[in-house]
Amino acid sequence: MDNIEYGAALNYYDTDGISAADSRNGNTEADGYENFGATFNTRTHLGQDWSIDLRGYYTHGHDDFDDNYPPPNYEIADSAVNNTNELFAGYAGVNADFGMLQNRVAFIATRGTRDYYDSASDTVHLNYDYEGSASRFEYQGIVDFNSDNQLIFGAETEERSFRNDNFGVNALFSPPVQLGHDRVSSGYGQMQTTLFDQLTLTGGVRYDDDAEFGGHTSLKLAGAWNIPGLGYYRACQLWRRVQGASLYELYSLYQKSVPQSEAGNSEGLGSRRRSHLLRRHPSRFSDLLRTPHAQPDRLCGHVHTALWLL
Question: Would 202 disulfide with which of 163, 222, 226, 286, CB 3.0-4.6 Å?
Fold first, then answer.
């Protein structure tokens, strides 16, 4: 067993809760929350240069809350409404080193569910049932030419699915079943080099082929200068990316249209004492919410922010 590394954990906690409804109006129900989680991970070494990773994660949460607004004041009051969430996630990967080339091939899967029960505005026990899943195959290679030069490259493909079932009164005002599906296949490369033991430069490119949004290229340029004798560094980066939408945003009543690309730059000044001054300049981004009365997508102007972190 000397060639196997492993670990596992269990956790559980709950709360008595605090009701959102005012107790002075006769609301005495305490809306509690409970959560259970489990995780494990193993690594099996198959010789000096090969290994296999297995990881798993599970969580279950349940909470009570209130959604009752009775007349005549329509103020929130106690109700039996409650919500249950579950998440499963798994990872299986193979690692192989060939000289200065490190390789990783992996399969990752997640599945999440949410059930919504006993709404005060409905007549059935189960009101909503949500389920989403994703599975991804990926390869990543890392080439360490030397301590100052590193190349990272890879490819991945991910398939996502979404399902929303509405029951009872809710099904009268929205589609009883909503389904969504999407696949994204990507490739990327990034080169990082350090010059004169002071200046680190990074350049990267990524291409995403989205079944819903088509093909898009993202670019990144970054630099960090460690100022000699001062213990400070100057860092800046330029990036261009496409912000996609979730399946719920794509296929629910609140659909998003095809997004515009985001572009911008950020820069910062920091020290080894972990103090940083950051500034970000997104040059354009999209407001993409579409409803039956929505306006066309619009591009927003520059946004400047500054933050001092201690």
Answer: 222
